[in-house]
């Protein structure tokens, strides 16, 4: 007599399969934790992460451009340890913005203003459909063996870059989680936010596969 698995057994088997897939993916990732303001890697090294806000250099005068480029070069050139520059594009959810524009277009009594709004709505809609609506973020990753040492280097670099006129933030745990979430979930990042950190350990970044 053949015995077919019941609903509970099938559910357990499915959960076990999903858990195994999740473990396999997590083993592939080069990091294992976020704690104390740093990313903890599997090779026992840690990394401090700085976020650098972009700005339009072309709006500066030639003298100011040279000053900024020289100051940034000196700050980067002064680093004795390896570092990494990451440029990450995050999709932007413009649905709420489009609804607001459409509401304004309906309410306006000016024919010219309504026409301009409709043309702009068409432009934004086309931008969304092509997937080119991105928020570009820039990061500097400073790896090292000791948390205090890499954080000290991060503060020194941030100070030197700020002298060049750049806005720099040393990422805390939740900001690091946000960076990893955008890196691992680029499609979801437009309308979802990473889970809040409830403790010193990195929660699972990936759901069932």
Low-confidence stretches: 200-209
What is the general shape?
flat
What structural class should be given to the helix and strand makeup? alpha+beta
Task: Tell me how many strands there are.
Answer: 6
Largest sheet: 6 strands, antiparallel
Helical amount = 40-55%
**Number of helical elements:** 6
Percent of residues in beta strands: 15-25%
Q: Mean pLDDT across all residues, rounded?
A: 79
The ordered string of helix (H) and strand (E) elements is HEEEHEHHEHEH
Q: In whole angstroms, how far apart are the ends?
A: 34 Å
Work out the radius of gyration.
23 Å
How would you portray this structure in words?
The structure is a single chain. With 209 residues, this protein is α+β, with helices and mostly antiparallel strands. Helix content is 48%, strand content 18%. The protein contains six helices and six strands; from the N terminus they run H-E-E-E-H-E-H-H-E-H-E-H. Strands 1, 2, 3, 4, 5 and 6 form a six-stranded antiparallel beta sheet that branches. The longest helix has 22 residues. The C terminus is likely disordered.
């Amino acid at each position: 007599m053949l015995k077919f698995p019941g609903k509970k057994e099938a559910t357990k088997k499915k959960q076990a399969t999903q858990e195994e897939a999740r473990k396999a993916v997590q083993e592939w990732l080069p990091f294992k934790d976020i704690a104390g303001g740093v990313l903890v890697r599997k090779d026992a090294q840690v990394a401090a992460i700085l976020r650098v806000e972009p700005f339009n250099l072309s709006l500066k005068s030639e003298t100011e451009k040279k000053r900024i480029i020289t100051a940034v070069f000196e700050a980067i050139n002064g680093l004795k340890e390896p570092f990494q520059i990451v440029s990450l594009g995050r999709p932007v959810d413009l649905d709420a913005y489009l609804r607001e524009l459409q509401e304004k277009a309906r309410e306006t009594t000016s024919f010219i203003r309504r026409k301009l709004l409709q043309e702009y709505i068409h432009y934004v809609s086309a931008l969304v459909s092509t997937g080119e609506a991105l928020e570009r973020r820039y990061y500097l990753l400073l790896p090292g063996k000791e948390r205090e040492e890499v954080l000290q280097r991060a503060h020194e670099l941030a100070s030197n870059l700020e002298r060049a006129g750049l806005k720099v933030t040393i990422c805390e745990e939740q900001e690091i989680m946000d960076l990893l979430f955008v890196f691992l979930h680029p499609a979801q990042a437009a309308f979802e936010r990473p889970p809040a950190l409830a403790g010193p350990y990195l929660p699972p970044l990936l759901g069932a596969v």
